Every structure is written in structure tokens, then in C-alpha cells.
Structures
1.
Amino acid sequence: MRSSSEVYGTITSTSTSLAAPIAGIAEDQQAALFGQLCLTPGLAKSTYGTGCFILLNTGSTPAVSTHQLLTTIGWQVDGRTEYALEGSLFMGGVVVQWLRDGLGIVRTVDDVEGLALSVDDNAGVYLVPAFAGLGAPHWDQYARGTIVGLTRGTSAGHIARAALEGIAHQVGDVVDAIKKESAVDILELRVDGGAASNDLLMQFQSDILGIPIVRPLGH
């Protein structure tokens, strides 16, 4: 097994005689965990991309999950291997894209937050974004998306708000599983990815988890 940070070889171009070293390799979610400086066991991050991916640094000892999470290698540096627990969700930011492309209730994904803020709450509307089944910790490939609580008074704003809350509740399921698995008291969740720029989503995520959400500056 090779380290995450060492020279693997060099690459040259026909346009130059210089050889550029290939000196590091990391899978995207492990790279995000490292980039979010989750270098100490117990630190966790969530990436809100097309899907959502929540990883917890578990240190130098792999934790074999009994709560439907994935045990993965985070990185190896200076001969030390760090492990992580991962929970993968199929539907994250793509739910917002569906509001735009599937329902046509917004023109751009940036419009979703404003639409969701046009109502005070979800008015009892809940959306389960299982458009391609459910990922961790349920792993149900036969689950399908559901919207419940519709009334004559339901508006596009309620559906938009329920969609954002549905993303956050999925992340909450994984964080709850991580807590049960690791017996770690997660004090904060570091976030990145396109949907992490949605203030309403991040505030709701913080509210249901009961911990601060830490977002990079300028995100």
C-alpha cells in the first residue's frame, strides 16, 4: 500500500522537457475530510454535492460498523494510516436540481432558498428524496421518493422548504448512526459542497443536530 503523500512517478509533455512529479493521491471524500482539517479522531464533515457524504475520523484503528456505515481508509501519511466511518446518501443537491428541472418551480438552484423562505414553515409537508432508493444507514434500493402532508393550501414554497429539510433529515440519520457507532460526542459538523452555500439548509441542519455547522469562509 502506498502513502497518500509521496512521489509515485513523473509525467512529461511533448511540449516541454520538464518532468512533473505525481506526488499525492486521495479519493474525493477522503480528500474533503483532510481538507476540512478533520485530522483528529472525532471530527466529522459532510459534503453536500449531488449526493451527501458524511465522514468521521476514527483514528488509527478501523471501526467495523454495525449500523450500516462504511469503514474506509482516510489517508496514510508518514507511515500512519487514519481510518474513517462513512455514510453515503444518493440524493443531496440533486434534489434542488429536481425542483428546477423536474417540477419547474424555480429558474435556478439559487432561487430555491428564497422560495423556501417565502413561507414560515413546511405547513406539515414532508419530502423523502428517495428518488434512487435510500443510502446509509437504510440501504433500501426499493424505496421511492414521497411527498406527504399536501393540502389545498400547499404552495411551491412549502415543497421547496420540505425538499431542503428532507436533505437535512437524511444527513441527520447518518450522524445519529455515527454517534451510536463511535460513542463520540460530535461537537460540530464541517461542511462543503454546492448546497452548503444555502443558509436556510445549513441553519436547519444545525437546528436538528443541535450542533454548530462550520462552513469555510467564502463558501
Note: The longest strand covers residues 80-89.
2.
Amino acid sequence: MSLDTLITTTFNPMAPKVSGSRALVLMGGGARTAYQVGVLKGIAHLLRTRSPERNDFPFKILLGTSAGALNATYLASHAEQGLGSIDQLCTFWRQLRSAQVYRLPTFPWPWPNLLSSGLTLMLQVRQHRALLDTLPLVDTLHRHVMLERIEDALRKGALEAVAVTASSYTSGEHWTFCQTTADHPCAPWRRPGRRASMQPLTIEHLMASSAIPFLFPAVPLWVDGRKEYFGDGSMRQLSPISPAIQLGARDVLVIGVGQPQRASLGGRSSDEDPTAGTIAGHALASVFHDTLQADVEQAQRVSRTIAQLPPEVAQALPYRPVNVLAIQPSVSVDELALKHVDVLPAGTRRTLVGLGALDTHRAANSSAAALASYLLFEPDFVNALIECGQRDAQLRESELLAFFDTQAS
């Protein structure tokens, strides 16, 4: 979280007053974001166990990036069901298949190699302006994300704001698109390299936010009266927590799927040159290597500083510390993906084999497995991630219960 966000939203006497609501921030990562479903399912279990009679939706602000934006808007469209929205999201993911997200055809090449994979991808780019055909995802979103219900949830008070992020290829700016209640005090903001717009969310916003570079085609959106082309919201995401603070959050739960430390699987090393798939996996890992940890640390550091001020000084400041809790996978998602690559669609698997992305005997295998992990929208991998998320939520039980014991609504 950038320091200017703290200053302009909490120390500026002209800034709109906000309620200090509880926010959920969901980071991006393709199929890896099934992990978020597991964490949320674990949270729902904890809350139900503590208060069986309560079923209200536990967040007022939802913010999503890339595939995290799909999770956030799905929850928003079911928010009136309370904790049941998390059950619905879990059911959606357990029934999901790669064929409902993207299409990569199988061509009659005699065997998978770098040349045949290159030809396959060249034909895809010519036809779809990207390596994958994402029309199946458009259809899936239309079927399962009821955007009109988001407006109902906002109007009835189940939510205060829903936002998704995307990165403009046209201007280079990182945008946050916000849909809020009619009386929400937050106005569009502009910071160096970052902007926000208040507008109803559409399927196009979701496709833009989740348009993984090279894999998914860019999506046009209208901003400031002109058309710009957008890609994945994880690109150039310098301050992932800031939009939630801008929208009025003072308690923020962030669920990421990244792995800052990425070593070779099983400790193996090699002097062999990295394959094309290894390089592609490393490039994608760099896109999704979010700044979450640094952002969380800065928010916590500033909040601790305020808490250490003399009471009379702290009370005179128009500021309340931001309570941030971040959860990320406790196991290697790359290694988990490598165990399930055999369930990839045939066309995808043949192409990755040709690229060397599934070669477990070469260097930097974790980077190679990473490429598969973003595309593994299949039950075996999804269920493994959901189970991992549930375990991590259980391990963080005391922190999560303390987080939900705060006064935020």
C-alpha cells in the first residue's frame, strides 16, 4: 500500500468519510485461484462453528484481480445468500473444466515437439490474437456470474462496493473499476500509474482483468470517452491493497496464490539450458509475482507506528490503523501442479510437452510446472488446491477469528 494512499484517504480533511468496512482482496493466478475457494470455505466453517445462527456475508467490500476478479464478482452476485455464497463458489469450481475456460485444439502432428507446438500456437494467434481461444470463458461467465444481482446486493446493503483491476496496454496505467452503492462517498482517484473509474461491472471487465498476457487476447474497454485495450490486472499492480483502502476498508483480508521463493522441484539442479516452456512459466510467474507481501508489511508498519503514538496525539489524528491479514499457500503450487499434469486437455498437454514445459528432468522444473498450473482448470488439481486452502485456514484459525472479531461490518 503506497504511503500517499494513507495520507490522502486518512489525513486529508477534505477526503470523504468512510465507515471502515471489512474487505476481501483476491489476487490473480489462473487456475491457482481455486486455493482462494478453499481458504474461504475454511473461513465459512470457522464462522458457522462459532456462531451457528449467523449467516450474513462477512465482507462489505470485494476487490479482485485476474481470476481473483472472477471469484470476487461471483461472490458478489451471490452475496445475499450470506455464507452460502462461498458454498456456491466452491460448487462452481468443483464442476469447472478447462474446456469451459479456453480452447486449444489438437492438430494431427505426428509427435509433440517444439516445431509442432510452435505451429499450433501460430495458428491460434492468427485466429484469436492470442495463444488460447477464450470464448468458452465468456460463455461460462454469462452462465454463472449474474451481474444484475450485484446491483441488488448493493441496493439491499449486503455489499458496499465491488471492484476489479485491469492494466491498459494503451496507456500503461493500472485501472480499478468500481461498482458501489448509490450513496458511497468514494470518488474516482488518480495516482501515478494508477486510476479508478466508477461504473457498473460487465463481462468485458472480467475478461479484461483475467486476460493473461500472450495466453488470452486483449479486451477493449471505454475509459475517459475513448477505447483502450486491457490485459491482466496483475500486471503493473504496485499497490494491491490501496483500492480497498480507498473504498473505505479498515480491515482487509488478502488471499494470494503466489510463491515468492521458487526453487527447482525436489531440490534438483541442472546445467541444461531452460526450455521454452520453462521460460514461459518463469515469465508468467513474474507477472503474477505480486507486491502483496511488501504492501502488507508497509500497512502493518504504518499502523504500528500510529499505535505507538501517545494516546492524546493518536486521538487527534483523523486516522485509524489498517488491520491487514494475508494468507498464501503453505505448499508449492508448482509441485502440486506437476502431480496433475496428466489431466490437462489433450491439445494443451501435447503443446506443453512440445514446449518442454512438462519435462521433469530438466532445470528449473518449478518454472515449467508453473505454466501448467495456470491452465489446470480440472477437478483433480482444483480439489487439491481447495483442500490446501482449507488446511491453511485451519492453521490460521486464531488469526482469522481475531480478524472477524474486529468492529468492522
Note: The longest helix spans residues 34-50.
